[in-house]
């Protein structure tokens, strides 16, 4: 280390410290290391490119003042970006970071070996703006608008998606939240919007990511101590698509970081697209402030497709696969598989496979066999939401009543039954059951299960409730 560099920088730091918020000082200045001082240019090492951008955007003035005080009008500042500190190679964006540095460096005609770990960015207070960071969008080209067939069940969501794609960030559909049950096309539609935006605005940075992966990246960033890099990475995106945000349930750290990213993007006119398997009102364990953000734009539901739409989805799929199939068979499949497009496609794929492996003709009987097996094998999974719904319906109350804090006996009993069945029919932990059924703790759930056990052996009426509900739930 260079002693003069260090002392010059220390003087700058004490000036800066007196002039900005302590938290900001801690975040943005403490991690900086002074490296050297040559030709009146002070080199400082920053942990990442985002860090550098952030300093440039928010602290360039104070840096200039501080440095000029120390070194006079000819002072220069050189950033050295430490590359080892960035993400591991699995992240979609890592490999891109060096190359974008390269562009930035090149554009200023500074010759730097590209495989050098420490990339220098010479920037004496001119804000160069490394704005064209290249980020892989992670979009699947097979999920486009062309093969996302329109029907009554998806008209609103599909058209809102098209509107957003025409003017990302420029409509009131921000965020656009697409919600609906499994296999109804949320992921497909989300990709389609991203792909259309990329077509129309190639210069925009679009990123598709599942909420699960986002959470994982966030956890990693906390472990590796580069939470700020994580945030800044997401803040430079123009169109952020997060799939299955219900996954954020109960994950307060991730919700918090997403909240900040969301606000930043929204304030800067960037587009956010979210999907969820529930409407915002039904989301559990998502902070209120985040839920209210979800509702700022448009929530559009994907419903189960009607018969005509199911037929056209099937025909379109067969056409794209180059397979011919008699009309009556297509209609038979469409008539019998109703709830979800993924199952619909699955049934038709098995039908094609069966007929070609066994060299059988595709007949209505073969279709019957397969549909029957299909419907049987995809017996629906019981969810805690579903249990609460069935129990509340049975006792003729709303789910919100069942979840409420009241001590009224019949409501307490209904709630205890819901907890008991959740334990019996799902793999959820006591804690998770408690948090989903009216935000109770695991001890309450345990107590509920014991109470239901006891009452069913002592109270005849109560035993009848348990039997009735068991039947309803194990259809
Ligand atoms: P989700 O994310 O809601 O669970 P997906 O987007 O994965 O559902 O859709 C399941 C399957 O159904 C995908 O293969 C998708 O292409 C297909 N699909 C859903 N809706 C449509 C539609 N309207 N037109 C064509 N294919 C659809
Ligand atoms: Mg999906």
Question: What does this entry look like structurally?
Answer:
The protein is an alpha/beta fold. It folds into 4 domains: about 5-95, GMP Synthetase, Chain A, domain 3, CATH 3.30.300.180; about 155-300, P-loop containing nucleotide triphosphate hydrolases (Rossmann fold, 3-Layer(aba) Sandwich); about 305-375, Helicase, Ruva Protein, domain 3 (Orthogonal Bundle), CATH 1.10.8; about 385-475, DnaA protein, C-terminal DNA-binding domain (Chromosomal Replication Initiator Protein Dnaa, Chain: A), CATH 1.10.1750.10. The chain is about 55% helix and about 10% strand. It is built from 21 helices and 9 strands. The strands form 2 sheets. Strands 6-7-8-5-9 form a 5-stranded parallel sheet, sandwiched between helices. β7, α10 and β8 (about 270-275) form a beta-alpha-beta unit. α18 crosses α20 (about 440-460). The protein is flat. Adenosine-5'-diphosphate binds near residues 154, 182, 184, 186 and 188.
